[in-house]
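FORM 12-B: Structure-to-Sequence Request
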C-alpha cells in the first residue's frame, strides 16, 4: 500500500509539472513582432547597409550612431541555435565597435566595422 501511494503521488506530481510548465505555456507578448531567423538576419543586414550608405554620403557622427542602434537592437531577434547565437554575438561585437567609432567621430573605422559585421551577419544564414 505504501508503494502504491508513492507511485500515485509521483504520477500526480509529474502530471502537474507537465501540465503547468512554463515552456508549455510560453507565448509571445501581445503586440510583439517575432521574426524567423532568416528574416531577422535580412533585416539586420538591411539596417547595416543603410548605415554604410549614409556614412559614405557624409552623415554626421550622431546620425551614424543613430543608424547603427536599430541594427544592434534587431540582432537580438536572431535566435536559432547555439552555433548561430555564438556567431551572432561575435558579429554584434563588431556592430558595437562601429557604434563606438561613430560616437568618437571616426566614421572611416566605423564604416569598416560595419562592412565586417555585414559579412558576418550574412554568413549566419549558412549556420541555420
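FORM 12-B RESPONSE
SEQUENCE OUT:
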Amino acid at each position: 500500500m505504501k508503494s502504491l501511494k508513492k507511485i500515485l503521488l509521483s504520477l500526480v506530481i509529474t502530471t502537474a509539472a507537465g501540465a503547468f510548465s512554463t515552456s508549455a505555456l510560453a507565448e509571445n507578448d501581445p503586440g510583439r513582432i517575432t521574426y524567423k531567423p532568416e528574416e531577422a538576419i535580412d533585416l539586420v543586414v538591411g539596417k547595416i547597409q543603410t548605415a554604410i550608405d549614409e556614412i559614405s554620403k557624409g552623415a554626421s557622427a550622431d546620425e551614424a550612431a543613430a543608424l547603427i542602434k536599430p541594427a544592434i537592437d534587431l540582432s537580438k531577434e536572431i535566435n536559432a541555435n547555439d552555433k548561430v547565437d555564438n556567431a551572432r554575438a561575435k558579429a554584434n561585437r563588431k556592430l558595437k565597435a562601429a557604434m563606438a567609432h561613430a560616437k568618437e567621430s571616426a566614421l572611416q573605422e566605423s564604416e569598416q566595422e560595419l562592412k565586417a559585421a555585414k559579412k558576418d551577419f550574412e554568413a549566419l544564414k549558412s549556420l541555420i
